[in-house]
Amino acid sequence: MLYPDLTPASARAMPHISHQHFGETFDGRRPRRENVELLQALSTELRKWDGDVVLISYEDFIQQQPRFRVPQILSEFFTAHGFEAEAITAVKPQSELLNSIYTHRTQMINERRTFAEFAPNLAHSGRFDYATLIQPWIDAFSGRVRAVAVRDRLSDAPILMRLLTALELDKRVTPLLRPADLARVENRSPGPLSVEISRRLRVMRAHARLSVLPRNLMRFVEREVQDGGYDAERFQGVGPDLRARMAADYRNTNDRFAQAVWARHWDDIVAPEDSSPINELVVRGISPEAEEMIREISQRAARQFDIPLRQSVLNRPINRLIESADSALRLLRYSRWRVL
Where would I find the H helices in the chain? Predict the structure, then answer.
């Protein structure tokens, strides 16, 4: 099995093989020439390679606009090289995904808003219309599309095993796995204290002064928070009302999706999300002890990554102006490639 290195020559080397650069060459976030470069490199590698399974993994393939024809391009490319293209996606309830999108943004120090301020702007986004998003892949791959629920009502097997089984690779891969591999989790969701620190770092524009990736700083923050005895639970911004409203809003599209990929109803397969209460600190209340921990860890992070932390009343209007400009630029880029 081949998991190819698809990093363009002009890109910063990643700590591990990632297909993010490759995915971004299809939608305009990276130069078009890099798409040609990487497809040619992959074509050369496939001609020399005598294996029978190639894996390409990129979350945002599912979100790209139909006009980019990504499913068709990939299907045609792999068919031309003697492969039968298949697609697989993992799914969870929309409100849970909304929560994950928010925490991912905080891991990148991309969000200054509270979850309550963030959620209304995205809750009705096309990115949650699973049936519409999956249809171009079903069409381009002649129906060879699989889906795995993050929590499956019919199986308590680890998601890795369920993904391998759906791909019919379990018999080949299972003998290579150790017990720890099945329990391994990368990029755990942050807890409420880490999220609050990230928001404050964003307000102070720490991300703009970094010489490393923002995620590196937040990994440091998350370790410090956990070492201090905080964030034993994951961040939860979704309350019962929002959870129920999104479940109702997306019930029909979820059933269409489920019928297309499983020939079953959504609720037959997908177990409901965790209904733990909101634990966002600005909602629950920040204790003096937590406030002191926020201050200390922010200062440790500033020293570790050599960034000045400064915020004053005079800075706030300037920060808001900059944030508004950043938001406008994000929206312009976003509308070029994402399903809205």
Answer: 20-24, 32-48, 70-80, 94-107, 115-122, 130-140, 159-166, 170-173, 179-183, 192-203, 214-227, 240-249, 251-261, 266-269, 281-284, 288-305, 315-337
